[in-house]
């Protein structure tokens, strides 16, 4: 027995050792497997609570990312959204920049983050997310539209034009990129390019609302470019709509004046004023038409109402000053002419500064100066938008 | 958790720093997507890029025939574009002077030559101009060498004709980049450079247009020299359109303006600079100038066409003082108070009310500006009212002038166009010229289609002069282009009856700049002025051609500068009548 016991002890020891080893291996393997699945589990758990408890989700995602040794793009992306939901957009921006392989993120999710960031005026993150989302696939057209809209919210730049052209390639039948390019070229005073873009947009069968917008822009552009015959063609198409909006009728009245049809222009303006008696645009045009006819007292009366409603309207100040000169009221004339001149100079300065800011958006001093100038000419909204963008950046 | 928060904050901070770095990098040096393939230095001028369209065939109803070929005039103004330095100097171009230098009662032609612009370091050189003697029947002979004008004075632009020494032979002022020159005509077919003894050499700025007129009513013509910008070759930074990848010349907004200069003729062959005293020393960006008695108070006034800033109306107040009244007269801006890029200028009564109206040609996306004179020193911007809005808006207007091309008593208009940017403009570098027919003073109609083959093709137009080169009573045109031969356009609408006047001042300058002629035609009173300067960098015919209903006799009333009025009767039709001050019937 003893001998057999002696002989059986090592065997038992060996067996226990084996059991321990197997148990250890199983535990280790289990732990390894458990750890391997932990980031995913934490991520899944975070997804479940994201809608109701974004802060809890953010904590889970942080652990998930740590568990994945800092490299878990889907979790990092969702954590950005969670941080954003908590109003921590700066952190979200920083975290997003640390995602090494953004191509591993779903374009749809990136676009969603961009939308949320855009709503919260987190400009840098919006742009980064959209740029990351812009890749061939089903989502690309939507992403490019979002990118273009985002660029338009800021001072449109060369990037916006490039995105318009990219979208035109990706979605060749979509009128949107051409309409956007038209607006962009118009803002840059590139009349020929803008007319071309609008015409391309019209060729792509826009919906009714879009078509109206495009034709309005096009008619205005053609008027500004001096192409009165083409402008008349567009205007007649717009007027074919029996419920032509005030803006259409006003544009038509301006065109009628340029065509030398004063009575028709006046009748059109009167029709607008009948519907909207305080319309500054209509009063301005009626003042101009009266001025044209040498009815300076009537012109001054209308233009006085315009400058009262729009104190930063440099054209109205100038025209009113001219009317006062004709009425032999030089003191009042000089005051309005000086105001007009000051506003004109400020606007020229703004145009020059806008070009510089487009080239160098990071120059805080420039942006701040531009915002200040906007305020001086009554463009408080633009100033606010600029300051807000500056704060985000 | 605490670690997590710290770690997150740390990462966010790092990211922020990284983002800042990225942002800075992108805003400064990273090319935009659209500009990745930009090769600005390879920008070329359209001359090499686009084939020239052929002009249309002549028609029986054409107003003008291009008679350059066979005329003996084969001159090309050179702006130095081939040096590819893209300087703003290249944009200005050249003009032409109609000058009867040999006093044989036909108009000869002088063209400033322009210059060259070379690189490393940038050097601006001059090219000689050319003088062509008019031998009649549209035959001209190059007399540059024998006239003494073959030597290049520098990089030149414009010219103005005036008899500064009152010897009866017209002298010549030539403007340019730091090279304004006065040439005295000795009456024997030779010109001598008298810039130094005349005291004009001190003006070493960039002069463009010029106008002769007697501002102090001492009988000696004084000289107004318009100046454009304060610019030198070292200022020539590259201006690049990143989105298109094109380098082009820089716009005038990049450079400060320069003071115009007014020189008083002392009557002994020399001049005093009275710019400060006259009150015209403010910096302008002048490309055009006109001298006339705009407000008819007896004193010469100057209207200055400025590029991108307000135009000036300097009213003469006597004692060599001028008052600037552009803004309060309504002649400084467009109809909504915005400054324009003005180039050419003229002054004439377009609507038959007896008052002289002002006209400027302007930059693209701006209408040319017609300022109707309402009297009392006030003008109305009448471009829209006169039907002149739109047609030229996409173009860049330069040479221009009022003239009664169809001899019906109503002054028509021509406008020569051409871009300043080789490729960065919104409209092409070469542009069509326009001809506007005056419809009874009410409005202007675009008659370019009937203008003739010249008007059917685009050119890089600059200076232009109007005058009766063949003495047939119909005003002809000479147009100067950039790096392209000049064009001589014969007016085919020859009137049956006409009267030509050459005024000879006694108390004012010999050319009587500022004099007003009134004349009855078809139960209307026509008013015409002798203008100094006007147009763009050019000198038009100083003589006045009037239409006539029949063979005559004809009579005119001349209001001489200073206000003295005289009637001249029994004027001979079909020839030049010299009206000397003091020889008419005082009124």
Roughly how much helix do the residues of chain A carry, as a percent range? over 70%
Derived from helix and strand composition plus strand pairing, the structural class of chain B reads mainly beta
Hey, roughly how much beta strand do the residues of chain A contain?
Answer: under 5%
Helix content range of chain B: under 10%
Mean pLDDT of chain B: 90
Main beta sheet of chain A: none
Tell me the total number of β-strands of chain A: 0
Write out the strand line-up for the largest beta sheet of chain B, numbering strands in chain order: 23-22-21-20-38
| Cα distance spanning the termini of chain B | 106 Å
Q: What is the number of helical segments of chain A per DSSP (H or I, 4+ residues)? A: 20
N-to-C series of helices and strands of chain A: HHHHHHHHHHHHHHHHHHHH
Beta fraction of chain B: 35-45%
Q: Which helices and strands appear, and what pairs or packs with what?
A:
The complex is a heterodimer of chains A (393) and B (587).
Chain A: H1 2-50, H2 54-67, H3 73-85, H4 89-97, H5 107-119, H6 123-133, H7 140-153, H8 158-170, H9 176-187, H10 191-203, H11 208-224, H12 228-239, H13 246-258, H14 262-275, H15 280-292, H16 296-309, H17 314-326, H18 330-359, H19 364-376, H20 380-392
Helix pairs in contact in A: 1-2, 1-3, 2-3, 3-4, 3-5, 4-6, 5-6, 5-7, 6-7, 7-8, 8-9, 9-10, 10-11, 11-12, 11-13, 12-13, 13-14, 13-15, 14-15, 15-16, 16-17, 17-18, 18-19, 19-20
Chain B: H1 2-28, H2 46-49, E1 64-66, H3 89-92, E2 97-99, E3 108-111, E4 115-118, E5 123-126, E6 130-134, E7 140-142, H4 144-147, E8 155-162, E9 171-177, E10 181-185, E11 191-193, H5 195-198, E12 207-213, E13 222-227, E14 239-241, E15 246-248, E16 258-259, E17 261-265, E18 271-273, H6 275-278, E19 283-284, E20 286-292, E21 301-306, E22 312-316, E23 322-324, H7 326-329, E24 342-348, E25 357-362, E26 369-375, E27 378-381, E28 397-403, E29 412-417, E30 434-439, E31 443-446, E32 461-467, E33 476-481, E34 487-491, E35 498-504, E36 516-521, E37 524-529, E38 532-533, E39 544-547, E40 554-559, E41 565-571, E42 576-580, E43 585-586
């Amino acid at each position: 027995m003893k001998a057999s016991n002696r002989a059986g002890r090592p065997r038992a020891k060996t067996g226990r050792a084996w059991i321990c080893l197997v148990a250890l291996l199983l535990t280790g393997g289990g732990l390894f497997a458990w750890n391997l699945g932990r980031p995913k589990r934490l991520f899944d758990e975070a997804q479940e609570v994201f809608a109701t408890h974004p802060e809890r989700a953010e904590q889970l995602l942080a652990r998930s990312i740590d568990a994945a040794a800092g490299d878990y793009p889907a979790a990092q992306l969702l954590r950005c959204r969670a941080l954003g939901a908590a109003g921590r957009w700066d952190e979200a921006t920083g975290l997003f920049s640390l995602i090494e392989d953004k191509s591993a993120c779903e374009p749809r999710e990136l676009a969603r983050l961009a939308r949320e960031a855009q709503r919260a005026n987190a400009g840098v993150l919006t742009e980064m997310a959209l740029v990351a989302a812009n890749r061939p696939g089903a989502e690309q057209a939507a992403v490019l539209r979002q990118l273009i809209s985002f660029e338009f919210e800021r001072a449109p730049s060369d990037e916006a034009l490039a995105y318009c052209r990219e979208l035109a390639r990706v979605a060749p039948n979509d009128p949107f990129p051409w309409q956007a390019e038209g607006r962009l070229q118009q803002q840059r005073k590139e009349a020929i390019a803008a007319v071309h873009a609008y015409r391309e947009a019209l060729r792509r069968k826009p919906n009714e609302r879009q078509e109206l917008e495009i034709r309005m822009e096009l008619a205005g552009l053609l008027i500004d470019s001096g192409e009165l015959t083409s402008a008349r063609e567009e205007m007649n198409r717009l007027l074919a709509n029996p419920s032509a909006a005030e803006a259409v009728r006003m544009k038509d009245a301006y065109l009628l004046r340029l065509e030398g049809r004063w009575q028709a222009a006046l009748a059109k303006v009167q029709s607008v004023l009948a519907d909207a008696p305080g319309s500054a645009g209509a009063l301005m045009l009626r003042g101009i038409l009266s001025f044209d006819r040498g009815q300076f007292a009537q012109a001054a009366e209308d233009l006085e109402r315009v400058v009262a409603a729009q104190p930063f309207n440099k054209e109205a100040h100038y025209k009113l000053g001219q009317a006062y000169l004709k009425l032999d009221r030089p003191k009042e004339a000089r005051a309005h002419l000086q105001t007009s001149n000051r506003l004109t100079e400020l606007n020229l300065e703004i145009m020059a500064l806008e070009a510089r800011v487009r080239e160098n958006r990071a120059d805080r001093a420039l942006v701040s100066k531009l915002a200040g100038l906007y305020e001086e000419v009554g463009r408080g909204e633009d100033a606010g938008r600029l300051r807000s963008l500056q704060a985000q950046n | 958790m605490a670690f997590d928060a710290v770690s997150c904050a740390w990462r966010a901070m790092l990211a922020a720093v990284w983002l800042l770095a990225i942002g800075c990098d992108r805003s400064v040096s990273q090319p935009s997507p659209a500009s990745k393939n930009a090769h600005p230095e390879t920008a070329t001028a359209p001359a090499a890029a686009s084939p020239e369209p052929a002009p249309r065939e002549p028609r029986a109803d054409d107003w003008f025939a291009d008679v350059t070929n066979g005329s003996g005039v084969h001159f090309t103004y050179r702006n130095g574009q081939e040096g590819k330095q893209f300087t703003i100097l290249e944009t200005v171009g050249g003009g032409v002077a109609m000058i009867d230098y040999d006093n044989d009662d036909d108009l000869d032609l002088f063209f400033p030559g322009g210059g060259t612009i070379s690189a490393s370091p940038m050097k601006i050189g001059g090219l000689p101009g050319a003088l062509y003697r008019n031998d009649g029947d549209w035959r001209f002979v190059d007399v540059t060498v024998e006239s003494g004008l073959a030597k290049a004075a520098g990089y030149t632009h414009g010219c103005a004709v005036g008899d500064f020494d009152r010897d009866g032979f017209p002298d010549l002022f030539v403007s340019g980049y730091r090279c304004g020159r006065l040439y005295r005509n000795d009456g024997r077919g030779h010109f001598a450079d008298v810039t130094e003894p005349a005291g004009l050499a001190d003006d070493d700025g960039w002069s463009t247009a010029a106008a002769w007129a007697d501002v102090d009513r001492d009988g000696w013509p004084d000289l107004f020299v318009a100046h454009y910008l304060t610019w030198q070759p070292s200022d020539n930074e590259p201006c690049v359109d990143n989105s298109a990848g094109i380098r082009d010349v820089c716009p005038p907004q990049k450079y400060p303006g320069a003071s115009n200069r007014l020189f008083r003729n002392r009557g002994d062959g020399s001049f005093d600079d009275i710019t400060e005293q006259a009150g015209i020393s403010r910096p302008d960006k002048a490309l055009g100038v006109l001298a006339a008695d705009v407000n008819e108070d007896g004193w010469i006034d100057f209207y200055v066409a400025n590029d991108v800033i307000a135009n000036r109306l300097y009213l003469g107040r006597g004692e060599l003082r001028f008052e600037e009244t552009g803004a309060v007269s309504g002649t400084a801006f467009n109809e909504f108070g915005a400054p324009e890029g003005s180039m050419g200028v003229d002054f004439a009564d377009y609507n038959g009310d007896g008052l002289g109206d002002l006209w400027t040609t302007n930059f693209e996306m701006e209408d040319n500006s017609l300022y109707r004179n309402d009297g009392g020193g006030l003008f109305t911007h009448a471009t829209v009212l006169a039907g002149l809005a739109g047609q030229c808006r996409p173009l860049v207007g330069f040479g221009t002038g009022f003239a009664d091309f169809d001899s019906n008593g109503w002054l028509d208009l021509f406008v020569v166009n051409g871009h300043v940017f080789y490729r960065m403009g919104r409209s092409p570098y070469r542009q069509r010229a326009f001809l506007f027919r005056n419809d009874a003073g009410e409005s202007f109609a675009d008659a370019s289609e009937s203008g003739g083959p010249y008007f059917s093709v685009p050119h890089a137009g600059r200076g232009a002069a109007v005058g009766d080169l063949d003495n047939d009573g119909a005003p002809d045109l000479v147009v100067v282009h950039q790096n392209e031969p000049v064009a001589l356009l014969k007016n085919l609408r020859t009137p049956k009856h006409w009267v030509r006047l050459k005024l000879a001042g006694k108390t004012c300058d010999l050319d009587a700049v500022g004099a007003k002629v009134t004349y009855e035609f078809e139960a209307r009173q026509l008013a015409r002025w002798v203008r100094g300067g006007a147009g763009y960098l050019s000198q038009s015919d100083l003589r006045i051609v009037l239409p006539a209903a029949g063979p005559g006799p004809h009579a005119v009333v001349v209001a001489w500068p200073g206000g003295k009025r005289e009637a001249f009767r029994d004027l001979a039709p079909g020839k030049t009548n010299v009206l000397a001050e003091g020889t008419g019937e005082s009124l």
